[in-house]
Amino acid sequence: MITTSFPKYVAIFAIFIPCVSALDTFIAAVYEHAVILPNRTETLVPKEEALVLMNKNLDVLENAVQLAARQGAHIIVTPEDGIYGWVFTRETIYPYLEDIPDPKVNWIPCTDPQREWNLHARRGQSVSL
Fold first, then answer.
1. Strand, helix or coil at 97?
2. In terms of Cα–Cα distance, which of 42, 68, 38 is closest to 56?
3. Which of 12, 32, 57, 110 is the most exposed place for a label (fewest CB within 10 A)?
């Protein structure tokens, strides 16, 4: 005698479908842009120069994200290196990185928002944690 487990799979499928159809749907946008790269990547640049370059790329990304949001996007994916580029040596990337506190530093930004850290606000914006 041949037995089949078809009814069991139909029952699982019948339970699963209403759950999937009840999920919200999202519109996603994927954005790629010609990243503005630094002129000199073999030389360490001042932090201020790195911030100017990153702000230029952030301006491009901000405009693209706002446009995608106005067109209905809920999730917007931007390039991994879209803020600073990718043509650095191990030494020359440092001005483009942010300082992250040592794990031994007992600071939770949400519970202690007044404490200052080495954060750099975008032009004309304040940093609030």
1. coil
2. 38
3. 110
113 lies in some domain: no
Model confidence pLDDT, tens digit, residues 63-78: 999 999 999 999 999 9
Q: What angle do CA 82, 97, 107 make, to 5 degrees?
A: 120
Taking the whole predicted model, whether its pTM rises above 0.90 is answered as no
Q: pLDDT tens digits, residue range 17-63?
A: 555 454 578 888 998 888 988 877 678 888 899 999 999 999 999 99
Q: Give a yes or no: residue 103 inside a domain.
A: no
In whole angstroms, how large is the CA radius of gyration of the chain? Answer: 24
Residue 76 backbone dihedrals phi, psi, to 5 degrees: -125, 125
- Helix or strand (DSSP H, E) at 12: helix 6-21
